[in-house]
């Protein structure tokens, strides 16, 4: 899921990565709306809020929103920076796993802070929303970087537009038989459905688990980070077993 890069990735690689990361983004977004009354999986609306706050002369609120936008930007920048700087220094899998682990730590921090330190103040809320936006920037930067911008999972605006374009293209028979277009449609549809189900899971989960919803998101991120490690270990065990069977002592 994380080992391969750009055009070396298969449709299955992108669908697994897209589904799990979109599911986690949907969970985070709904949980943050429930707790903080703020969206954290994208920054589209915050550009408008930033302009609105400046037009009203609310300089502090405008600065906070600008900080949120910058942290999403920094998260995306950091993901790609680690990936390109890691080439030749450590394995491709490690380069791709680092942003996921940073996202894991950011969301884990939010969950722990909510459980043990949160005083429900405005400043704390602004700080925790910033941490989640940084985490979502990390995720979106990672998925876009390693998939050659095919997989973007923290917001659905462009994805919905792309789906609409594909559906219109499928009105022509030859396009319905184009494997590349059909595969892209399946990938985008998978991401959209996973995001919605993640949101549903996050909303329902928060009713029963409260802040534990953030820990569940962390568990999903660990699965993403460790999936390829498990596959490599499994392949190694199978190879060693077959070697022992074919070359008995």
TrEMBL record:
Pfam families: DUF1275 (PF06912)
Keywords associated with the record: Membrane, Transmembrane, Transmembrane helix
InterPro entries: DUF1275
Transmembrane segments: 20-39, 59-81, 93-114, 126-146, 185-208, 214-233
Name of the protein in question: YoaK family protein
UniProt source species: Sphingobacterium suaedae
